[in-house]
Every structure is written in C-alpha cells, then in structure tokens.
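Posting this for the archive.
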Amino acid sequence: MKSMRIPYLDLKRNGNLHASEINEAVLRAAGSGYYLLGKETAAFEEEYAQYIGTRFAVGCGNGLDALYLIMRAYMELRIIRPDDEVIVPSNTYIATILAISRAGLTPVLAEPDPVTCQISPDAVTKAITPRTRAVMIVHLYGRCAWTPGIRDICREHGLLLIEDNAQAHGCVCDGHRTGSLGNAAAHSFYPTKNLGALGDGGAVTTDDPALASTVRALGNYGSARKYVFRYKGVNSRLDEIQAAILRVKLRYLDEDNARRQRLAGIYRNEITNPSVALSPEAPEGENVYHIFPIFSSHRDELQQYLLQNGIQTMIHYPLPPHRQECYAEWRGQSYPVSERLHATELSLPLYPALSDTEILSIARAINSWHPLS
C-alpha cells in the first residue's frame, strides 16, 4: 500500500491559509483578560448575524447545544411542550436527533429525496400528526434543504421551521442565506466545518427577540442577570478565543466557499466512471460543498482502492440513525432511501487548501477503478 498523499482533510494545511491573522486574533483575545462573554464574542455575534441576515446570533458551546437550546427555549416559551413531535431527516447526523431527544421531545424520521439527499416534502407531509410542532431541516453536505414546498407545509400546519445549518455556512437560496430561512437555526463551528473554530463552538440565529434572549439565558445556567436564575439552564458559551478566530475566518468564508465550489466543479467535469453516481448540481449558490459525496454500490471496494492509491476518503455516515444502538426502539422500522444512501455514500477530499491538480488526480483515480464483481 502506498503512503498517504492526499488526506481526507488536512486541518493544519487549511488553517495555514489565514494563519497570521488567526495567530494575531488569538494573542489579542488571550491578552485581553476576558475569556468568556467578552468583546470578541459580542463582536462575532453581531458580525455573524449581519452575515446570515438575521436580527440575532447567540454564541454557544457547540452545534448540538445550539439545536438543544432552540428546543428548550421554545419549550420555556410554551410554544412546544414535552413529548411534542419534531420531524427530522432520517439520514442526518445523530446530533440533530439527539438534540430533540435531549429536550424531552419526540423525533419523527422522514425520508430524504433519493436524488438530492435532502428531506422530502412528501415525506414531511406524511409524518405530520396532531402532536407535530416543528420540522427540522438539515442542509446536509452543504446543500440547501429549504424549498418553497417545505415552507408552505409549515405555514399550512402552523409548524415551526428550524434549520440545522452545521454543514452549510454561507449557502445562499433565493437571495437569502441558510440560517435565516426558518424561525431559528443552529450552527456548528467544529473545526472541520466551512466556518470552523480551533475547538468547539456553535450559535443560534433568529429574528425572534424572545427566542434569542431565552437561548442566551439558558446557555448561561438559566440566568439573564448575574446570580438570578429564571430557568434550569446549562453551561454552553462560546469562548473569547474561539470567537476571535471565527471573526477572522468569517471574513474569508465566501472566498473559501467559492474555492470549494470551483474544486467541486472539477470533480463534476472529470469523474466519468459509470460505476459512480454524483448528486445533481444545485442551483447557483445553493451548495457550499462541506462534503462532496459520491455513490456506488461497490463503495467499500472503491474506498479501499483509493486508499491503496494514497487517497483518503470518509463515509457520511456508515449507519443511519434508526440502526444506531442508542435508538434501539427504531430497530424494527424501515427507511429504505436512507439505508441505500448510507450503504453507498463515499465522501471525497474537498477543502480550500487542495490544489486543482490534487482534485484532478483523485478524479482520474476514480475513473481508473473497475468493480471486481
């Protein structure tokens, strides 16, 4: 086996693109004497809200917490009640579902469209019951999941529309960024994300002042005023150093996303192997390619072939949520579209620091592969 030449994601190489400004920001934050709830976080929240196009952005500890805090805030506001149902894609990352369960609500799985891999409006409609209070869409792989159909379903049934925007920072749909398309949105700044910190971080965006203030209090032990606790909250705050780093990276997000889109275009133009399928191209701006997925019924064989040729890949995700041990109660349920996607998906390297030449070499390696069976 050849030594690794192209890792799936080289965070150090990616970080070096803006290293001098990041180092300066870290030193500034570290030397300020304020490490939580300070000027860097306040500035990032203002800048990120303006970028997303919402009135408010509230920093928190991570993306899972952001989702959970939205659910809890709606419960504290008496808009959602314990055991109410939230419809969620059946092919999402487990964190989306864990947030619903953690809040004492019931996740209801809905199948994705087999072509776009995004939640299907028809499946959402079929999943609605008298207990449904919200639909949580996930902009999976960096592709916009919002559609006019989803919007209209939520309006018709009086449902909240919540976005999991962990994978789609900067994505644009119909002139608006994801994170501003629903009633509220959760964002993850995990280091691998398009807008990634150098540790954990997250945020909630919304136009609703009551929701924003409740999320902020819940994430600060339930306190909006020092030593006065209105809610049984948690400790989930974006720290000053991560906020300073994110302020730097936010300035380059559109540029970095444009680079991702260019590299994705090379993949699309160059991959011609008939044993490999690509998702159809989204309308302009509606995919920021956090992940570039391909699909093959011989996925594991292809992954091993690429590894032998020095190319590391990933699978997003090996097991669908209803097959996970933590949700054993769903074991008897069948979600055939999700199961097929999870069994065939393979993620190719794609990040701004990669060169055109490296992307071409990956495409050529894929084209040279032939299934053994």
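The mean pLDDT is 96. The chain has 13 helices and 14 strands.
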